[in-house]
Amino acid sequence: MSVHMTGEVLYACSAATADPVxxxxxxxxxxxxxxxxxxxxxxxxxxDSLPHDEDLPVRVAVPLTLGEDGDVSxxxxxxxxxDSGLLVAGPLGPDWSLAEICVQRLIEAGARKEDAIVxxxxxxxxxxxxxxxxxxxxxxxxxxxxxxxxGAVGGPGVPLRDAINLARADHQRVVVASYVLTxxxxxxxxxxxxxxxxxxxxxxxxxxxxxxxxxxTRFHQAxxxxxxxx
Length: 230
Known about the structure:
CATH architecture of the largest domain: 3-Layer(aba) Sandwich
Helix content: 25-40%
Distance between the termini: 6 Å
Number of helices: 7
Number of domains: 2
Strand content: 15-25%
Radius of gyration: 18 Å
């Protein structure tokens, strides 16, 4: 895939507190976006390092997050209020392509149709997070072809361990579909919540091309243009 554009800057924005494992996975994703969009300046940008430089051409901040709630979203809202030249794209999820990857991870992990599937999410502080998680679960359910419940690590909502225990009442096995972008602390906590199987994060190993494409889709949506044909 190759995108040829001129002059635009894409800030690939992530949490300032990302641990080294997360940072490495995000860095690999950013490098993949650079390869696919060679004429766009793609910058790996923790939100606490987002520059305010109005001398640059078109600038778009793309949050490398799965929803609108969280530190990254809040920081970008504040940044855009003080910088009229900064465009803020939507988060990567929920999205059909992410649901497809979740189901791919379920299949890779050996999940069966008779298993109970719980979408493991990162708890958010606001309604936007719970709405996004509910939509993500519906998309995964549609692709998987069976019911998907939700359990959260941190924040409000049903704790993941409780969601697993509830699901186990009617099923022999419980499989957690990890709705987290990268390996790291949250993914590690999901593996410790008592499920029989926990899938790999969405970014596992080499960057998933569908996620790379999704970053560029959000970039073009913020610009109000259609993505070039690939």
